[in-house]
Amino acid sequence: MNKECAEIKSPQQLRRWVLNTRPESLKIREFIVLSLKFFRIRTCMPGFLSYIIGWSITGEAFHWKVLLGALIAFLFQAGANLNNTVTDLREDSYNLPKRLNLVAQLGYRNLFHVTMGVNITIILLGLFFNAVFFLFVLIGTFEMLAYSFPPFRFKARPLPSMLTFAQAVGNPFLLGYFTREGSLSFSEALSIGFYSKEFWGLFILLELWFFLYCPMKNIPDYEGDKYAGLKTTATIFSSKTNAAIAAVIAHIASYTVLAFLIMFKLLPTKFLVLFIWLPISSYVFIRMIRDSDIKMQNKNMMDAMVYATAYCSTILVLTNIQLFTLLSILLSFAGIFITDYLNVDSRPIVVPEEYYRSEDIGREYGR
Q1: Torsion sign (Cα): 10, 16, 19, 21
Q2: How far is CA 53 from CA 140, 177, 217, 274, in A?
Q3: Any domain includes 294
Q4: Termini Cα distance of the chain
Q5: What stretches in the chain show pLDDT beneath 50?
Q6: Which terminus of the chain, N or C, has less C-beta within 10 A?
Q7: Total tally of structural domains belonging to the chain
Q8: Residue range(s) defining the domain that contains residue 96
Q9: How does DSSP assign 80-111, residue by residue?
Q10: Is residue 4 part of a domain?
Q11: How many helices (H) and strands (E) does the chain have?
């Protein structure tokens, strides 16, 4: 933190400082790097892969719109992260004061413009597709904005937040499934989707898996969200430990959903392979109960996102193995590890120790 920021003694002062700071000279390279940090690229991969899963079961030959659709799926996740950064100054002033320092470096006004630019770009790119695809682009954009912004602000209510969070993989899957090189009417879309067991099996799996994954993501921010008065899937519990236990139970329940889908033949038996991730992911989630240190909790959350990417990658391999799908998987993990290595993330996994000392400042003045 710079000297002016380090002298701040309260969350209110920090927020005012961020809102009022105007970067005097910001080079193009600095602008791009700071913007990418707020994209949080590593968190965009499950949605990106869900799009590829949706497209891979259509049986269509590869065409240029698939690449454009994958970009839209990626931008949906990046846009959601940007929207959260714009709207979450209050809780971030306690949970992530270092991130607010990054907002000040970019400039809150610049961040807002980048955020709205991404939101508008998603809609404009959707115009290149058929009417069904574009409808889901509009629905997804509304969900993304309503998750963060008032008057809806779904993220501040447990059930709406879980339902909307699930669309981070559900909506890209639908976009992928309805990606067509030519036109597609609503009646045609209904006929090809409604009668496909593979479509419903994968859609239900992704939706309910991420719906039950959602409680985990709020654990590291328990204290700050409580301080900010947010009623999240974590803060409805009396302690962070109880919230973490509930998140572990919810996660294990998602594998029960998988078992039922296989039992009722909505998914083939080969999807039992996904159970290999249960002990690994449960170990990561259980660490949330054991580790109270903010550094370890952030590390656990990052590991959980690697698991989520691996889970989607496994579904993709089970669904359709071809060169493009394999390249998509490689690109996803490359995006995670490269951005981690370069620390191109506003909530990085590899950071200097002073980052966490700055987090302690938030803990002290938030009490």
Answers
A1: negative
A2: 18, 8, 23, 15
A3: yes
A4: 21
A5: 1, 350-367
A6: C
A7: 1
A8: 9-21+29-366
A9: HHHHHHHH-HHHHHHH-HHHHHHHHHH-HHHH
A10: no
A11: 18, 0
